[in-house]
Input
Amino acid sequence: MKAFHARLHSNVLHAAIAFSFGIFASTQAIAGGIFLYEVGTEDMGLAAAGYAARAQDAATVLTNPAGMVRIEGSQALIGTQVLYSNLKFSNGGSSPALGGNNGGAAIGESGWLPGGGLFFSHSISPDVKIGFAATSNFGLGLKYDDNWVGRYYAQQATLIGVSLLPSVAVRVSDKVSLGASFNAMYGHLNSETGINNIFGTDGKLTMNDNAWGWGGNFGVLYEATPDTRFGLTYNSQVKLDFAPQARFSGTGPLLTALLNARGLDGATVNLGITVPQQVMGSVFHTVNDRLTLLGNIGWQQWSKFGYVEVGLADTRNPTGLTTALNFRDTWHAALGAQYRVSEPWRLNFGIAYDSAFQSGDVSPILPTNQGWRFGAGAQNQVDKTFGWGLAAEYIYGGTGNVNKQARLPVALGGRGNLVGSYDNIGIFFLSANFNWKF
Output
């Protein structure tokens, strides 16, 4: 049996490392949702309940660096996941000249997206820990059909923030520990929007850029009793100062001349993004040797996000390339439970709610808003040095209405009216995590 476990450890380790590096290699082509708690760890099965207080594995480097004080020796965790969403637009009165194509599955590549993260914690002493994480929990990835009804508002969009998090934690008393992470975020932006040529095939507006942003994550862990602990984290905002050049292609001779005369083709466009700051408070309480309860209250400052739609509202008189979108701050709440079935097996359950970050109607560039999370998972501690787990989660976002009213009809060079909805918005996650202790 030990020999089998050794072979299992080796095979799973090599497979997980290969898959994880594949995830990071592919993130520049397709990205995950806007701001996710899901990075392939045990937290998915809890719907993130206990996010800042759980501190049971090396993923605490991300969720609350102060929690590393509870991690003995050295631990490495690889989280892998895939999500699927059949998110589609339902046309409900758009301009007839735009046609009838609903865009197909909008998220990712035919609805599928990979994700995950790498996490490591190391003990300098019983009271001083260091750690590192590499993951992406911020971004979006959309791809509509070329001739869909909203092509003049959005065709493709990729926005990714990959965080590198060197971290440190110190136990300052028997009950209180402090932690901090430096967040070096690498951002990638790619945007494609259709351009109305009035006659003939559509043109295209493309923008691409990369940028680094810097921030910090700070955490406190208060262990009131051996059975109860509280976690509080603050993640600072991170500014990604994207400044791509507007590149037009396939435009007719008249529009091309207008764009050149007004300096729009090749112009630098300020598309700065502010990854929102966040505060999260969590509790972890052991009821008995089998049952543990977990909970969260959180806040995110989406009102400073700043992402804009790009395109031309009037191809006869092109004067600008961006349209501002308004966002509002959001609130988060979660409840979860862990149940110890036997010594190696632990079951996880959770439910969470995040309030809407778009006021009223949604944009086709961001076809999500509020969300309910429902998670379940299981962890198996194979022996003292290796454990693994599986988790599944479903996010339900209700219906997002779209009502874009154009200044000009399509026949006169406008975008046309885009009216409809994204019905029964839903995302399904499946993950596997692997944890080694050294």
Summary: The first strand starts at residue 74 and ends at 84.
